[in-house]
Amino acid sequence: MKAYKSFEEFKTYADEIAKTYEFVISSYNEDYSIDIDKYININVRTLTELPIKFNKVTGPFICSNNKLTSLKGCPEYVGEDFWCHGNKLKSLEGCPKYVGGDFLCYQNKLTSLKCCPEIINGNFYCADNQLTSLKYAPKVIRRDWNIERKFHSYPEYQKYLLVKKIEKL
Questions:
Q1: How far is CA 146 from CA 5, 27, 79, 112, 158, in A?
Q2: Rounded Cα distance, 54 and 154, in Å
Q3: Mean pLDDT of all residues in the chain?
Q4: Residue 106 covered by a domain
Q5: Looking at the predicted structure, is the pLDDT value of residue 62 above 90?
């Protein structure tokens, strides 16, 4: 992440990034992060890191199909979907604490679900990674959970299935 000499330098840089990636900044924060009232789509840009620190995005945050190795700079809050699939992520460290919709982290190199949000308010797709357990899996997944078949007998997945069965009653 870029270091800034002043808040004005940060704002100028943030404006350049917003123009490059075609989004509108709703506020500049004292911690040198930005808030966005709509969505961010920085999908398929060959990024190896996020260009700026995001704090709150009320719509979807899409950073999929890049070459990201870290989620450093991701927003803490995403009001809708969060897509980070198709990168080179080994960890979910830095991912949002709150996601209002789907959380798609499939097709990465994740070895753990540590740092994953506890509640996924939509679908949770984490297949095609290098996971060895479901420890740290979300406690609540409101819609579908897409995971490799080898994990279907794991207690975390069985609990998810039981909750879904009870919800249908």
A1: 44, 35, 21, 15, 13
A2: 35
A3: 95
A4: yes
A5: yes
